[in-house]
Amino acid sequence: MVEGKIRMSKDNKVKVKVEKLNLWYGENHALHGISTDIYENKITALIGPSGCGKSTFLRCLNRMNDLISSVKIEGEIIIDRKNIYDKDVDEVSVRKRVGMVFQQPNPFPKSIYDNVAYAPIKHGIVSKGKECDELVETSLRKSGLWNEVKDKLNQPGTSLSGGQQQRLCIARTIAIKPEVILMDEPTSALDPISTEKIEALMLELKKDYTIIVVTHNMQQAARVADYTAFFHLGKLVEYDETETIFVNPSNKKTEDYITGRFG
Amino acid sequence: MNKKDRNNNNPFYDPSLNARHRSSKRFKTFTLSSLIFSIAFLAFFLFDIISKGSPAFEQAYINIPVTYNEKTIKNTRTAIDKKYRKIISRAWLRGLPKLAEANPEFMGKTIDTWVLADDQVDQYLKGHYHKLKRKDRALIDNMKTHGKVELKFNEIFFLNGDSKIPEFAGLNSAIVGSIFTLLITMAFAFPIGVMTAIYLEEFAEDNKFTQIIEVNINNLAAIPSILFGLLGLAIFINLFGLPRSSPLVGGLTLALMTLPIIIVSSRAALRSVPDSIRQAAYGLGLTKIEVTRDHVLPLAFPGILTGSIIGLAQAMGETAPLIIIGMIAFIPDAPGSIMEAATVMPAQLFTWAGMPERMYIEKTAAGIMVLLTILISLNAIAIYLRKKFEVKW
Amino acid sequence: MHTFESKNKSRELKEKAIKIALITASTISILTTFGILFSILFEALAFFELRSFWYFLTGTEWSPGIVGSKFGAVPIFAGTIMITFIAMAVAIPIGLGSAIYMSEYASHTTRDYLKPILEILAGIPTVVYGFFAAITVAPFIVKAAAWFGLEASFNSALASGIVMGIMIIPVISSLSDDVIRAVPDSQRKASLGLGMTQGETIRNIVLPSALPGIISATLLGFSKAIGETMIVVMAAGLRPNLSINPLEDMTTVTVRIVDALVGDQAFNSPGTLSAFALGLALFIITLCLNIVSLMLIRKFKEKYKVNTL
């Protein structure tokens, strides 16, 4: 079991610290002793072949794996000096601060406005009316969708194109003002133009948020990520600045994957 | 972020969530209670029926001297001592001549016989509401201590037909009536239903005619059962002139009601046969009918059978339409043919439930136990067949 | 070549005959629907020749006695509506609640055991429910009412309504369970990912999406309640009674149909024919409910592309 080299860059703050994370699906040991630091306001890409555990790992960061009853987790994930898996932690409050965008765009069958407004109103972040209107507009602007939908906020979210739907999902995620945004292959179901728009969006968003993105597209990781983590068979094989991973990987397996010897 | 929400030690402690968590918990509790209520009702209901019905499987008998001779056979009241007249069943006495005929060696003798007791005695012994006079109660209590009064297994319940005399009433005529009626039901519903399913699944094109048939089947499934009774009355009895209250009319009426179930389940069974089987058979040069009959049908048969058993079980419990076509007449004897007046089990239970004597309550509950046992067995057989023949393609 | 051809011909004839037989069988279902419609319509029209149609719909006195009989069905419709509403007030919360628990909260094994148990409720013959309503529930309600100082009839609408509601629980819960499970999981994940609790997710996202299916189930339940016969024949009253007190006895359409047809009157008397007029009303109402219900389910199926319903 090879653990990744963690380069502590002195300028970067650690937002999420993962310590010896192990996960089992029933008898199946899916994640083996993952330890790493995720840096604030950076984009970290998780890459690796299918089934390597990168999505599973991502879901640990907002405790979405709790929803699967056969899952057992050991280890710690520390955000703000608190292990989010501690007994006195409310997983719902974790998800308020760690948002998630999914692979298939999944807007609610509500209006575009309500898609964005649903969670913030429930969380009491804004009250209905002008406050909420402003938040919806800000979120839609930030996700680059405002100009396309500002005249049809009452239309159902599902009436948008695939790329627009995904930007809507991003808008509703940032509307609750999270600190970390998790993205699980956010563009794999989209066309190249929408993909380009969302990648540009990610680069914009990292100024305000910490972004962790799972991608099976290495070129995407190379384009947007500051840091890249390579997963293989449930282990974190190598973690470094993106350029290093792609140009000068330390581990042979990483090199094999990058050069396409296996996938 | 909401700094004011942070507890000094725990940044993930959010009191604003407490109310929301409580509300969600209440919601979950509500849904769980609903489920528990449904199950609890079922348990209570079964307990109620069983406790009301199980006493009926035993009946009171009294051991008294009975005199067999010419005089007593003519006037059966004289066959026993006067003091016993109120506590034994007059229906039993009516059967005395037959008993003497079957046992000629009894003639001229006085024999201690277990005689069926009157229904009031039976209810008294079982601790239910009764109308026995004190004198009779004392007699019974006395005889009981001498072992002359017993509760024996109630075979009358299964061997006798209906009777206006409570202790003599049994389920037999209704059981036979049910069997005849359901035979007619399946004789019509099964072939017609399966043929319709075969047509719709294997032969029908996507045209207006097919759509009309499918809409009709959906409709039929949802029409209140009593309206089928009106159909039976107006068409089978009035128009066709078939005998009222007969298993034939009852069976035809129920057949129409059972069609949708058989059609839907048969279609599902046919649909589950993979197309590759059909393609292979066509490839051998067989016609559509040969393919369907020799290759598809045998594979779909278990599913068709399961669906038919379930349809049969449903038909067995139907009452409303059969009431309309007359099957609540008083039927003491089992029908000899499908054209004679008959009744069915659920209709018999309905009639009994309306009788004034208290013994009918336990008989009805016991009848319910018999009916439910048959229904549960049928459904269990259907599920077993489905599991056994479940082929994983 | 000669024998080859003639073999084909007899084969063809046989095939054609079988196909005709299949088509004939299939038309029986159409004939049945029309048979029901026409037989009821025919006799109902005979009734409306003897008695006023308008009074039937709006009149408040129903007294089928031989002399001076009046056939105003409003109290009968009112009784049906009252008992139906009591039934739905029982069936909807319990049926929907059970469905939500089984589909959203229960574990696989729990669900596998509990779903068949609920199905048992659906398999109990209605005459059995009727017995239970008349012999156990009705006397209990009389006692309970007396405990509160109220007077209840032994044929109270409440007794038959409650038991009818229990009978309808599986109708609501089975269909609701199916539609709730058909709502895609991605919706739930999205809501939970935004920091909603499971209860909020169910109430704000899942149930609204499943709503057409749930309404469809409710309409089906209404239809079943309105057309139910045995429970009310055994536990409800015979007397047309226009009242809003559920503790009183009242009668329903189905009870009066049975009563009209098991008497000794001649078939063509208004008393007997009134059964068909009531039957016509019943047919039309349940048909409308069923059609709307089917349309809603079809809409739901299209939206979520489900085939399991």
Quick recap of the structure?
Chain B is mainly alpha-helical and 393 residues long. Chain B is built from 16 helices and three strands.
Itemize the secondary structure elements and their pairings.
The complex is a heterotrimer of chains A (263), B (393) and C (309).
Chain A: E1 14-25, E2 28-39, E3 43-47, H1 54-60, E4 71-79, E5 82-83, H2 91-97, E6 98-101, H3 112-123, H4 130-142, H5 146-149, H6 162-175, E7 180-184, H7 192-205, E8 210-214, H8 218-224, E9 227-232, E10 235-241, H9 242-247, H10 252-258
Parallel strand pairs in A: 3-8, 3-9, 6-7, 7-8
Antiparallel strand pairs in A: 1-2, 1-4, 4-5, 9-10
Helix pairs in contact in A: 3-4, 3-6, 4-6, 6-7
Chain B: H1 16-53, E1 58-67, H2 70-74, H3 90-94, H4 96-102, E2 110-116, H5 119-125, H6 134-145, E3 149-153, H7 156-159, H8 172-203, H9 208-222, H10 225-239, H11 247-272, H12 275-283, H13 288-316, H14 320-324, H15 345-353, H16 359-388
Antiparallel strand pairs in B: 1-2, 1-3
Chain C: H1 2-50, H2 53-58, E1 62-63, E2 70-71, H3 74-105, H4 108-123, H5 126-147, H6 157-182, H7 185-193, H8 198-227, H9 230-235, H10 253-261, H11 270-304
Helix pairs in contact in C: 1-11, 3-6, 3-8, 4-6, 5-6, 6-8, 7-8, 8-11, 10-11
What report would you give on this structure?
The complex is a heterotrimer of chains A (263), B (393) and C (309). Chain A has 263 residues and is of the alpha/beta class. Chain A has a domain at 14-108 and 178-258: 3-Layer(aba) Sandwich (Rossmann fold). Chain A has helices spanning 54-60, 91-97, 112-123, 130-142, 146-149, 162-175, 192-205, 218-224, 242-247, 252-258, and strands at residues 14-25, 28-39, 43-47, 71-79, 82-83, 98-101, 180-184, 210-214, 227-232, 235-241. In chain A, the strands form two sheets. A six-stranded mixed sheet of chain A has the order 6-7-8-3-9-10, sandwiched between helices. A four-stranded antiparallel sheet of chain A has the order 2-1-4-5, covered by helices on one side. The longest helix of chain A has 14 residues, at 162-175. Mean pLDDT of chain A is 90; it is low at 1-6. Chain B is mainly alpha-helical and 393 residues long. Chain B has two domains: 55-154, no CATH class; 172-388, MetI-like fold, CATH 1.10.3720. Helix content of chain B is 63%, strand content 6%. Chain B contains 16 helices and three strands. Chain B is extended. Mean pLDDT of chain B is 89; it is low at 1-6. By secondary structure, chain C is mainly α. Chain C has two domains: 2-46; 62-304, Orthogonal Bundle (MetI-like fold). Chain C has eleven helices and two strands. Chain C has a two-stranded antiparallel ribbon. In chain C, helix 6 (157-182) crosses helix 8 and helix 10 packs antiparallel against helix 11. Chain C is globular and about 75 Å long. The relative contact order of chain C is 0.14. Chains B and C meet through helix 1, helix 8, helix 9, helix 10 and helix 11 of B and helix 1, helix 3, helix 4, helix 5 and helix 6 of C.
